[in-house]
Amino acid sequence: MNNATQPPQSPPAIRERGLRAATDLARAQGLGDVVPQVLSDRGSLMVRLPGTGLVARVCTHTGAQRRDPGWWLGQEVAVGRIAQEAGALVVPPAPEAGPHEVDGLWISLWTDLGDQDSRATPEESAAALAEWHRVLGDAGQDLPVMPIVHAMITEPLEYAERLGHLDPVTRAALTREHEEALAAVEGLGTRQVLLHGDAHRGNLLRDADGLWRWNDLEEACRGPIEWDLAILGSTPDEETGAAALTAYGQITGTPVPSQEELAPWLRLRTLEGTAWLIGCSVTFPERYAEPARRAIDELIRG
């Protein structure tokens, strides 16, 4: 089902719909009657399914802005399987990970690593990404190349404009920025790898053995390694990112790109994030409308 064609519901209604979908899926999978425990309710609704050892990602606000949310979750599960089979440190997809469609919402199932009470240090983040690239650099050759800078940008903008949440003038300015940003990276990139796609410490979870495992693989795809390095080197702030990027170079024994070399990739990353905020602001204005306005101002009006 194309969630992007459905009229938006209120955030509480979407949350309740997602909880019911997770409950229904657990029952359909023979996991019994569970009461989902909400872990996060942002772009996706992340819920623990108590007693099953599983966490469900219910594609809610992010899914609404995509033409085919099931395709994106299918890519996420496929990369999770590739990484698991290769021995990479990844949160394992469940045996019946899906994705599953329930009441028009798409859901994927993952191993529950328990409550998280810490964040990876810059050095730990760098080590985790270096290991990902080492193990998976040549993996996933059949995966698409960089859909994250194409459909992941255009679809939220189309969705928001269609529902009257993005005026034509702003949409045209964002489209020009997209075209220019794509042109700026044409021919760039030193090595194509299986990208994590959103490689920051917020997407690392610690397992029972104290190992950091990559989570949230919706943006994983083939592409230039500079994309992952640009995100690592800029998140969550400039100082922390710079420390992580330096550590990555030390761990891999390779020179890391300069900020000037990473700037064209960060330009696209900023646009991707802005498009996501705009899409989420349609269905979750309380959380995302103001950040979306600020991001638009900084990107095309500042």
Description:
The chain has 302 residues and is an alpha+beta fold. It folds into two domains: 3-111, Phosphorylase Kinase, domain 1 (2-Layer Sandwich), CATH 3.30.200; 122-301, Aminoglycoside 3'-phosphotransferase, Chain: A, domain 2. 50% of the residues lie in helices and 13% in strands. The chain is built from ten helices and nine strands. It has helices spanning 11-28, 61-64, 69-86, 122-136, 151-162, 168-185, 225-232, 238-252, 259-283, 285-301, and strands at 37-41, 45-49, 54-59, 100-102, 105-111, 192-195, 204-206, 212-214, 221-224. The protein has a five-stranded antiparallel beta sheet with strand order 1-2-3-5-4. A hairpin with a 5-residue loop joins strand 7 (204-206) and strand 8. Helix 4 crosses helix 8 (238-252), helix 5 packs parallel to helix 9 (259-283) and helix 9 (259-283) runs antiparallel to helix 10 (285-301). The longest helix is centred in the last third of the chain and has 25 residues, at 259-283. It is globular. 45% of the residues are buried.
Topology (SSEs and partners):
Layout: H1 11-28, E1 37-41, E2 45-49, E3 54-59, H2 61-64, H3 69-86, E4 100-102, E5 105-111, H4 122-136, H5 151-162, H6 168-185, E6 192-195, E7 204-206, E8 212-214, E9 221-224, H7 225-232, H8 238-252, H9 259-283, H10 285-301
Antiparallel strand pairs: 1-2, 2-3, 3-5, 4-5, 6-9, 7-8
